[in-house]
Give the backbone structure.
Amino acid sequence: MKLILVGPPGAGKGTQSSLLASHFSIPHISTGDIFRANIKGQTELGKLAQSYTSAGNLVPDSVTNDMVADRLKQDDLANGYLLDGYPRNVGQAEFLSNFLNQHQEKLDAVLEFSLSNEEIITRLSGRRVCKNCQAPFHIEFERPKVTGVCDKCGGELYQRDDDKEEVIANRLEVYNDQTAPIINYYKNTGLLKTISALGSVEEIFQRALIAIK
Ligand code: AMP
């Protein structure tokens, strides 16, 4: 099973990716997580990515495409994989199509999560994430038992730089200008399935499973 999840920031892609990846027993490949891990470890890639991610801009395609191609060559992908946050523009989608053609592989589905701009802003500005295990919380809708502390591992919760209000507007603009056009790209291939990102985690998960079938 080879899946792509597309949707605006805050649509819950990360949560649904984890559920779907474990349901289909496939690795969850999140380019955002790979960048954050590199930034935390202060690697060369991390130093390069930091200025882009903290401003809510896309890391240049030359860097991102190579990083993804390297990941897709690893040998834990016999069952397939789920790509979360990639591709993020038409250039990346074309790069991925070429990569798959060269390896005689095909995607099974592209799952789009749809959500209004208003809802996105509310979700992102209140989101807090565990520094240790990345589990997401929300200061209003999914409060941790103890303020600032992760229910799952006791780690410290923090607000991602790119969830700060001044950056959210730019991320939305980047999504609408650069990422939304890939929806049409995949519509033309017949792979696109669109579902609403409103509702409980379980409701959205069931919707996703039905859409993929
Ligand atoms: P995410 O966690 O998916 O929202 O990604 C966080 C940040 O990482 C984005 O705002 C970008 O700066 C960067 N990033 C993640 N995926 C990509 C991608 N496919 N292309 C370029 N930049 C990306």
Observations:
- The first helix runs from residue 13 to 24.
